[in-house]
Amino acid sequence: MAIFEKFRELAAARQTLMESSMDPFNVVIEQILSATEAIVGGRRTILAGTNNYLGLTFDPRCIDAASQAVQEEGTGTTGSRMANGSFAGHVALERELADFYGMATGIVFSTGYLANLGILSTLPGKNDVILLDADCHASIYDGCKLGDAEVIRFRHNDPADLEKRLQRLGDRTTRTLIIVEGIYSMLGDRAPLAPIAAIKKQYGAFLLVDEAHSLGVLGKHGRGLAEEAGVEEHVDFIVGTFSKSLGATGGFCLSRRHELELLRYASRPYVFTASPSPSVIASTRMALHILRTSPDLQTRLWDNARHLYKELQSLGFTLGPEPSPVVATILPKKEQAVALWNGLLKAGIYVNLILPPAAPNGASLLRCSVSAAHTEEQISKICQAFASLKPSP
Ligand code: PMP
Description:
Layout: H1 8-19, E1 31-32, E2 37-40, E3 43-47, H2 60-73, H3 81-84, H4 88-101, E4 105-109, H5 112-120, E5 129-133, H6 138-146, E6 150-154, H7 159-168, E7 176-181, H8 193-203, E8 206-210, H9 225-229, E9 237-241, E10 251-255, H10 263-266, H11 268-271, H12 278-293, H13 295-314, E11 318-319, E12 326-331, H14 334-346, E13 349-350, E14 352-354, E15 364-369, H15 376-389
Parallel strand pairs: 3-13, 5-6, 5-7, 7-8, 8-9
Antiparallel strand pairs: 1-2, 2-3, 4-10, 9-10, 11-12, 12-15, 14-15
The structure holds 4'-deoxy-4'-aminopyridoxal-5'-phosphate.
């Protein structure tokens, strides 16, 4: 059929991949056993590719909060907050997130993806500029596409390139929104936020940090990279998600400025979709409370992350530039990545396979995401499997 013809190339690539492998992008988790284990292909498998950084998806307190919300408030809100009103939990969670970050106000969205769409499609307008790190997440790019601002990329993690592009903007710098991420999801590297914040201040621009992968992971209180780098006062907007450290689905944007509230009336990805279910809000509120009161989870997460990074490095794998809960193994050939991914799955280890063009610089990646809930034994098993399956050079 003509309408599907454009997918012919994609279908051929998929066919080639399937000849040597189970479809890596369509894996079915037959039974989920815990935050770190599942049955996949009939086999007990260690989950080493989720973003369940603090392991809270099976925390009994989160489960109880969600169960109670289902009993008391039902399974869904069945509508948008603008049309159907907010549940008290939505408002409470927004207040709790804003308090945690010391921000004036915040808006909860139905996913992290929608949080970026909601802000970037609406806040920067026709005469404004978005300057984004080239390796920013798809949700940031898609949000930019939906809006009217001029979009300019700067080289990944290169403050000098950012400054060069700001200089070219002349007096438009005060209408410019700079966007970076706390931890980049592909290679697990952090933004050089201190110099970026200094440049932002010097040129009078605005700064948005997407802390999706750094909430609960970085900073003494778990607020993310801006906290760790000591530059929170220079960050104008924080975007985050509930789908990683907070173990649910949903997203948020926080701001120092009360005017963010106006976006509730203007942002289509906020207005025209159903609000998060009561159970999601309840478990997220509990997870945020646990994140704030259990710094030991962050310690455990980092012990596991450093352990895995060090072991894979000593085995001679090429990894992302610094230890982080996202441990990416970079393989020069796509075929090697597919073979290793299959071997790992057969050995009971499930990691993410990322093929070009999704990863930076045309690389193929096997991405492990470490959790505080992984045991030492599980981390050792992951390392042993990588060791026994290492491709010959
Ligand atoms: N921002 C970043 C940096 C992300 O990596 C992701 C998801 N991986 C998102 C936003 C979207 O979040 P969600 O999956 O919760 O919609």
